[in-house]
Design goal:
This protein has about 120 residues and is mainly β. The chain contains no helices and 11 strands. Strands 2, 4, 5, 6, 9, 10 and 11 form a 7-stranded mixed sheet that branches. A hairpin with a 4-residue loop joins strand 7 and strand 8.
Length: about 120
């Protein structure tokens, strides 16, 4: 069992940057595959980024490659999503997730945060 709490969302202009944090408690983040998903207004939740248990392997959705970076700080038991060159289409509620499988399919993930809203103005 692990609890996840996202923070760092807010309003940012197009082209700006934002860093989201996912603080974990109950278990260490190194015990899980960690990921970020997002849900734009009126749309389904979609994969954004993933990191394996070792932190050595990462993958990203095509829409964010080259702009977003997932990372973690084991000492703080926290996972991050650095978002650069933000676009209005990045506007969404962003969710941190933990699971046992390295997959972009959201239904296979076990634990979720409550989400943090990112709004990118044009």
């Amino acid at each position: 069992q692990v609890q996840l709490v996202e923070s760092g969302g807010g309003l940012v202009q197009s082209g700006g940057s934002l860093r989201l944090s996912c603080a974990a408690s109950g278990r260490t983040v190194s015990s899980y595959v960690m990921g970020w998903f997002r849900q734009p207004p009126g749309k389904e939740r979609a994969f954004v980024a993933i990191m394996d248990w070792s932190g050595g392997t990462t993958d990203y959705a095509d829409s964010v490659k080259g702009r977003f970076t997932i990372s973690r700080d084991n000492a703080k038991n926290t996972v991050y999503l650095q978002m650069n060159s933000l676009k209005p289409e990045d506007t969404a509620v962003y969710y941190c997730a933990a699971g046992a499988f390295y997959t972009g399919r959201s239904s296979l993930w076990n634990y979720w945060g409550k989400g943090t809203l990112v709004t990118v103005s044009s």
